[in-house]
Amino acid sequence: MSVQGVIQTGLYVITNVATGGYATMAYGNISSGLTQSTDDGNDDIKWSVTKLSSGKYTVVGLVFANYASASHSPNSGDTIKSSANNYQWIIKQSNTAGQYLISPVDNDSLYWSFSGQSATYVKLSDTADYWTFTRKTS
User: Fold this and answer.
1) 75-87 confidence digits (pLDDT tens)
2) C-alpha closest to that of 105 among 81, 93, 89, 85
3) Has this prediction a pTM greater than 0.85?
4) What whole-number distance in Å separates Cα of residue 17 and Cα of residue 10?
5) β-bridge pairing 35-37 and 67-69
6) Contacting residues for 110 by C-beta, under 8 A, at least 6 apart
């Protein structure tokens, strides 16, 4: 069951509301793009989400322990990539309980997006895509 309210530190599966696809860090290479998966049996769809004292978040893939990151001057169309460096996100609940927007701290007018049913990579878009966070124990 997906959570509602403020996202707390924990292990989550992050699901796109429109496509039902999971944000996935399928590859361990630095700078590999985050992809969409429909396979709920792999640990690469699990994310360690940490709420920082600033109210911002870090998002780290469970399998490869790399951060989900964007450039420090993000633009619409940029792919979210894996990085060894800490990167912070804004995660805020939309007007619909349990549905969230994920934005880079450097440009909160951009959002994580699959940009359609057939998209392969998670990209930044100026059109909001909504996500759910489902808590996992391991």
Assistant:
1) 999 999 999 999 9
2) 89
3) yes
4) 20
5) unpaired
6) 74, 75, 76, 103, 104, 124, 125, 126
